[in-house]
Design goal:
The strands form 2 sheets. The chain has a 4-stranded mixed β-sheet, with helices on one face. Strands 3-4 form a two-stranded antiparallel ribbon. The chain has 7 helices and 6 strands. The chain has 2 domains: 74 residues, Phosphoribosyl-AMP cyclohydrolase (Ubiquitin-like (UB roll)); 91 residues, Orthogonal Bundle (Helix Hairpins), CATH 1.10.287.1080. The protein starts with 9 loop residues before the first strand and ends with a helix. The longest helix has 21 residues. It is α+β, with helices and mostly antiparallel strands.
Length: 197
């Protein structure tokens, strides 16, 4: 049972469902919460406009709700969502503009996935990543194998610096391989989570 304050507004924090980045924060009344649940798009109560406001209603950059939760006191809400474009009205991914300082380190992998996706159909001469895609899945898979072996050899040699470098190459090439098969790191994470139960 939610604990609604006298003004009927609960803080609603929106977090990226994959990267974990905090995207924005607003307020929801019971009508905004109902609309969020029925449409699947994050809807707030705008205190300045004094009306319901669905993020993306004018820009088309909706926040697709994946799950909703309350805090331990049931007086604030957390929406895990997938953004359909920039979240902030100034065109940035989040409403917190110093993303690098405040982002979880692993969120860099989702940023890297976006770069890899952008280069998938680019001119092969424009980047190493684009050239990998142009050479096909066989070459990409071969690179994953090579980097895996090189990571194992670095570990066996006790060379921590080399292991970090080879592991970085392995993760990069694995992300390229996943993208070539229309998969994302989050698909792999879901498998790991299902095995952890």
């Amino acid at each position: 049972m939610l604990k609604w304050p006298a003004d009927g507004l609960l803080p609603l924090i929106v977090q990226h469902a994959i990267s974990g980045k905090v995207l924005m924060q607003g307020y929801a009344n019971s009508d905004a919460l109902r609309q969020t649940l029925s449409t699947g798009h994050v809807t707030f109560f705008s205190r300045s406009k004094q009306r319901l406001w669905t993020k993306g209603e004018s820009s088309g950059h909706f926040l697709k709700v994946q799950s909703l939760a309350t805090d331990c006191d049931a007086d604030s809400l957390l929406a895990l969502a997938l953004p359909e474009g920039p979240t902030c009205h100034v065109g940035t991914e989040t409403c917190w503009h110093d993303n690098n300082a405040n982002s979880p380190s692993l969120s860099f992998l989702t940023d890297l996935e976006a770069v890899i996706a952008a280069r998938q159909h680019a001119d092969p001469k424009s980047s190493y990543t684009a050239s990998l895609f142009a050479r096909g899945v066989k070459r990409i898979a071969q690179k994953v194998g090579e980097e895996g072996v090189e990571s194992a050899l670095a570990a066996m040699a006790g060379d921590r610096e080399e292991l970090k470098n080879e592991a970085a190459d392995l993760i990069f090439h694995l992300l390229v391989l996943l993208r070539s098969q229309d998969l994302q790191l989050n698909d792999v994470i879901e498998v790991l989570k299902s095995r952890h139960q």
